[in-house]
């Protein structure tokens, strides 16, 4: 049911079920009672398998990820932490890899060698170019345009600024008083 259609009894029932699952998973292991063969599933593992078979793990995933079911988030978080109580992070990380782990290691080594080669090329390119940038763009003589005297204009800016050249470049525009403005 959607949360809008739930009665107060339904909400209490959901909370009680979540608390029951949490309490069942919270029972500490008793090694004297569990005298099984090495590699045999413990009571905790069998309870987890029963939860998986019943579909309760899918319901817990739904409750954890649904935006409208945020009121159960702490209960679900506690249940999930109790599910992984006996597991170490290294075991969980290596569990699903199998043969893919060897391929992953090979890919990692290959990527590392490519990264080292790229860094070496980058260092070589950095050594080839000078470390400081010269802001001096050069001086150019504009033939055909006369300056104040009879000489050609000497242009001290870059060639890309040549198109916007005027004789008034760098001069302060004449200010017209307010009462004489058009």
Automatic annotation (TrEMBL):
GO terms for MF: DNA binding
Gene Ontology BP term (one): replication fork arrest
Presence of the UniProt keyword ATP-binding in the record: no
Keywords, alphabetical: Cell cycle, Nucleus
Segments forming domain Timeless N-terminal: 2-141
Signal peptide: none
Predominant subcellular localization, coarse grouping: nucleus
A family per Pfam: TIMELESS
Subcellular location field: Nucleus
Gene Ontology CC terms: replication fork protection complex
InterPro entries: Timeless, Timeless_N
UniProt-recorded name of the protein: TIM protein
Naturally occurring in which organism (per UniProt): Ptilonorhynchus violaceus
Gene that encodes it: Timeless_1
């Amino acid at each position: 049911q959607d949360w809008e259609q739930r009665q107060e009894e339904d909400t209490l029932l959901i909370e009680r079920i979540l608390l029951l699952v949490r309490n069942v998973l919270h029972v500490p292991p008793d090694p004297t009672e569990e005298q099984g063969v090495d590699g045999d599933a413990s009571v905790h593992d069998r309870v987890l398998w029963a939860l998986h078979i019943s579909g309760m793990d899918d319901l817990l995933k739904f409750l954890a990820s649904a935006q409208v079911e945020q009121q159960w988030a702490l209960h679900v978080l506690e249940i999930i932490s109790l599910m992984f109580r006996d597991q170490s992070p290294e075991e969980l990380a290596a569990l699903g890899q199998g043969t893919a782990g060897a391929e992953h290691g090979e890919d990692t080594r290959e990527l590392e060698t490519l990264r080292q080669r790229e860094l070496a090329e980058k260092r070589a390119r950095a050594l080839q170019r000078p470390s400081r940038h010269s802001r001096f763009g050069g001086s150019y003589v504009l033939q055909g345009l006369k300056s104040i005297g009879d000489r050609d204009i000497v242009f001290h800016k870059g060639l890309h600024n040549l198109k916007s050249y005027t004789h008034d470049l760098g001069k302060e525009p004449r200010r017209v008083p307010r009462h004489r403005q058009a």
